[in-house]
Amino acid sequence: MLLRSQKACRTNHKWVSSFTLVEIAIASALVLILFVGIYLTITQAFAITRASREDLRATQILLERMEGIRLYNWYQLTDSNWIPRQFQEYYYPVTNLGPPPGIVYYGEFIVTNAPFVTSYADEVRLVIVRLWWTNWVGGAPVVKMREMRTLVAKKGLQNYIYYN
Question: N or C: which end of the chain has fewer CB within 10 A?
Answer without folding.
Answer: N
